[in-house]
Design brief:
There is one protein chain. This protein is mainly α. The chain folds into 2 domains: about 5-75, Orthogonal Bundle (Rna Polymerase Sigma Factor, Chain: A); about 85-165, Arc Repressor Mutant, subunit A. It contains 8 helices and no strands. It has helices at about 5-30, 30-45, 55-85, 85-100, 105-120, 120-130, 135-145, 150-165.
Amino acid sequence: MDNQAGLDRFSLFREYYDELLSYLTLRLQSRDQAKDITQETFLRALAQDSPVAIRQPRAFLYKIAVNLTVDLFRKKQRQAEESLDAEELRDVLVAPARQCEDAESREETRLLYDAVLELPPRCREVFLLHLFKDLSHAEIAAHFGISKSMVEKHILKATVYCRNKLKDR
């Protein structure tokens, strides 16, 4: 890339930084993550080897930012799926039941464990993050890139399902 192309791309930073940061802050619900994505967006724009001028610089930057945001959401989703696996769930739910001397309590815990495992994966993850990691609906929504309303629906669905499983025994 020649010096002029580099200067042109650096001017993109000055012109669009605040706008892109505001957009990403709203989308990610985290100013820190938005700053990271915004910085990475401009680094990638500057690193382009093509000497050709960018015809639509705003669209170019937004496309990079959206792609980076999607990558971030996918990474978070993989981390969440790995962090709350079935074995951890068993440890959280079943271990306290072993300490209970009441056979009925142990049975309820086993039924709850089975019910949670039967939930759809995303519903289960949201429910467990809310229940055991004590995350707020907003934090869970940001973590998965979904709305707070969807988080509430997942939690409600999981709660109703688990209650019905315990009631049906």
